[in-house]
């Protein structure tokens, strides 16, 4: 379902795979994120973030070794773990079997994010991240994990402070045809598709603002 003026799909996919393996997809995304944050009057490097996950069904092409069953959501597939800034822009992503707990994934995702964003000092999360993760994050990373809980007497839909930001980002992902479910054999390909989806979103946002090209970083 590619545009008719594109080359044959194996050639297009070969370029995508090359960019994925070289980290160019994430690099392009990060430059656009910095441009969007500049346009919003924010520092290019965030000091706070929001984390959440999304379980999606996996296609038959996804091997049993990289898929699992999310008992809470009753989904057999994979789970996307997203860390976003307070604007909902993607900072880090990890794709795991759906059986992976949010806490276990956060122990991988948070150190990676802290290594890239030294200013990161606070992360908001939902009740799935409670437990020893908060103490571990503070002691090992110097990052405060702030749990935003849903009140026990709350009925129906309620927008929760901070959490809605990453939940909106997860909803943005589902607007992409390739992200409605997971079709990829490799988890790093799934992650690259998420980076690419957010890249398209930010490029449209910058185009609407009339922003010029993103300046290259100094060598």
UniProtKB/TrEMBL annotation:
The protein's name in its UniProt record: IS5 family transposase
Stored InterPro entries: Transposase_11 (IPR002559)
Q: Where is the Transposase IS4-like domain?
A: 45-197
Species name for this entry?
A: Streptomyces prasinus
What the entry lists under NCBIfam families is as follows: transpos_IS5_3
Q: Which PANTHER family match?
A: PHP DOMAIN PROTEIN (PTHR30007), TRANSPOSASE (PTHR30007:SF0)
């Amino acid at each position: 379902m590619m545009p008719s003026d594109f080359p044959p799909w194996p050639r297009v996919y070969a370029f995508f795979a090359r960019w994925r393996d070289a980290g160019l997809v994430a690099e392009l995304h990060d430059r656009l994120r910095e441009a969007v944050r500049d346009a919003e009057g924010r520092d290019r490097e965030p000091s706070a973030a929001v984390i959440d996950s999304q379980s999606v069904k996996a296609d038959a092409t996804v091997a049993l070794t990289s898929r699992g069953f999310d008992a809470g959501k009753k989904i057999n597939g994979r789970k996307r773990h997203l860390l976003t800034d307070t604007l909902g822009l993607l900072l880090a992503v990890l794709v795991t079997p759906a059986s992976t707990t949010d806490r276990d994934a956060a122990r991988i995702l948070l150190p990676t994010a802290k290594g890239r964003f030294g200013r990161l000092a606070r992360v908001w999360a939902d009740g799935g991240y409670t437990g020893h993760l908060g103490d571990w994050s503070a002691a090992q990373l110097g990052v405060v994990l702030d749990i935003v809980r849903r009140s026990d007497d709350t009925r129906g839909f309620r927008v929760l402070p901070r959490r809605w930001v990453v939940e909106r980002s997860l909803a943005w992902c589902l607007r992409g045809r390739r992200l409605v479910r997971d079709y990829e054999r490799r988890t790093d390909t799934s992650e690259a598709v998420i980076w690419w989806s957010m890249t398209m979103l930010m490029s449209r946002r910058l185009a609407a603002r009339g922003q010029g090209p993103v300046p290259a970083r100094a060598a």
